[in-house]
Amino acid sequence: MRMHVRTVLLTLCFAAVIGSAPAVAQQAALVPSQPTLAPLVEKVAPAVVNISVLSRSPVQDNPLLRDPFFRRFFELPDPDKIPPQMSAGSGVIVDVGKGYVITNHHVVDKATEIVVTLRDRRQFKAKLIGSDSATDIALVQIEADRLTQLPLADSDKVRVGDYALAIGNPFGLGQTVTMGIVSALGRSGINAEGYEDFIQTDASINPGNSGGALVSLSGELIGINTAIIAPSGGNVGIGFAVSSNMARSVMDQLIRYGEVQRGRLGFVVQDITPDIAKAIGVPATAEGAVVVQVEPGSAADKAGVKAGDVVTALGGRPVRGASDLRNRIGLTRVGEDVELKVLRNGAERRLRARVERSSASPQTAALQTDKGTTIPRLRGAVVRDIGPGMPMYGKVQGVVVAEVEDGSPAAARGLRAGDVIVAVNRKPVRNVAEFQAALQEAGRVAALDVLRGDMSLFILIT
Which end of the chain is less enclosed by CB atoms within 10 A, N or C? Predict the structure, then answer.
């Protein structure tokens, strides 16, 4: 009886196991496949290359080493026998037909030889087409077949929070892929002398990634990896890539001219803050750049741009801020006509200007330094009515700044002796009394329309 029971139990257990097998298989079939970016990487990675650069040592360029007597006296080596320096970076193939590869200026700077290594390990000597230090973009060319290129995205459509892949050659280890998101857009201030429109990402970027690709999940190039903030020497999740739109503009000029021909319109702009928006009568949410100075005789002056105008669009594309406007004008070809959309006194205007290389220099106004009136909000400055005997008498209405004390708050805000203040927050003033009343009415922030010789300025007083 016990044996019979045991047999039954074993049979039931075996049947249960057999019966569960199809269920397990069915359940496994319902589990989705493992998420992976491998297909995307396999598609785009062949377009990212390693770049090896030979460059002369700074010692080799020392003119003293070219003097045989100097070398013999100090027993220094012959500069021609000093081995060249070798460095490595990354690049991105953007045109398979022409063999064009975008990289960073600092990767190929002072190179005597550039070698591009593809993912399939083929190597080619590259020709430098051109390089631009201000944007840190360079273009080289190789003669090769069976290449893969990355299409350039419209980086204006990139959004904070988008996923991004960084592909490059960190520390010379070989091609490496890291993943992150777009952390911020329009970053600047990394290089005060340059033209900057950086995409910030937390995808791991390290030395050697320079010139590599920042790629969207759609397989398009959205940026050229350029810089990192690394207090410890390694990645801390703050990397920067030159936007693809800026890289495209630079590349187009390097192909056409071999260099970037900087354009300018001849005005100075700054970002709009809520206080500035209130002072000049535009919505607090307005985007653009406010014009604070127009050079006389410049393209902007000829087009009719005035201090206090808010530039909201250039060439039909919205302007995000002062840095964005400066970048785009600087990368516009000299001689090209551009359309500016501006807000002036609440009304929208469209102006056309021709981009120039240079503009006229501002002139210095005549000055009469008789004592006038001191204004509490302009400590260090003395203002007075424009009276008979002054060069501007009868030509302009306003108040003249007779004196400005060096190092005073008025000087720090940009006022200079000889300036003529013609309006406060767009309200014209004809004398000191009206000027004082307008300042009091303006509240915490006052925007002064100032004439300095032939030049118009826009000065904020807080």
Answer: N
How many of the other CB atoms lie within 10 Å of CB of 84?
13
**pLDDT over 70 (residue 122):** yes
Single out the catalytic residue among 55, 95, 106, 271.
106
Tokens of 346: 């609440």
CB distance 208 to 169 below 8 Å: yes
Residues linked to residue 131 through DSSP beta bridges, in sequence order: 138
d(CA 312, CA 305): 13
DSSP symbols for 269-324: EEE--HHHHHHHT--TT--SEEEEEE-TTSHHHHHT--TT-EEEEETTEE--SHHH
Which residues, at least 6 apart from 447, have a Cβ–Cβ distance to it below 8 Å?
276, 279, 280, 308, 424, 425, 426, 458, 459, 460, 461
Please say whether the beta carbons of 116 and 50 come within 8 A: yes
User: Reduced to 3 states, what is the DSSP secondary structure of residue 402?
Assistant: strand
Q: Catalytic annotation on 106?
A: yes
Looking at per-residue confidence, does 78 or 165 come out higher?
165
Backbone angles phi, psi at 4, to 5 degrees: -65, -45
Q: Among the options 52, 131, 204, 210, which is catalytic?
A: 210
136 in active site: yes
Contact criterion met (CB below 8 Å) for 167 and 176: yes
pLDDT bracket for residue 366 (50, 70, 90): very low
Contact 90, 130 (CB under 8 A): no
Superfamily of domain 41-141: Trypsin-like serine proteases (2.40.10.10)
For the question of residue 105 being annotated catalytic, the response is no
The hierarchical CATH code for the domain 155-257 is: 2.40.10.10
pTM exceeds cut of 0.85: no
Neighbours of 44 (CB within 10 A): 24
287-296, 312-321, 365-374: range with lowest mean pLDDT: 365-374
**Which residues, at least 6 apart from 435, have a Cβ–Cβ distance to it below 8 Å?**
375, 383, 398, 399, 421, 424, 429
What six digits make up the tokens of 97?
């037909």
Convert the pLDDT of each residue in 69-79 to its tens digit.
Answer: 444 544 555 55
Fold of 267-354: Pdz3 Domain (2.30.42)
- pLDDT reading at 168 higher than 70: yes
Q: Reply yes or no on whether the pLDDT at 18 is more than 70.
A: no
Catalytic residue among 105, 132, 136, 309: 136
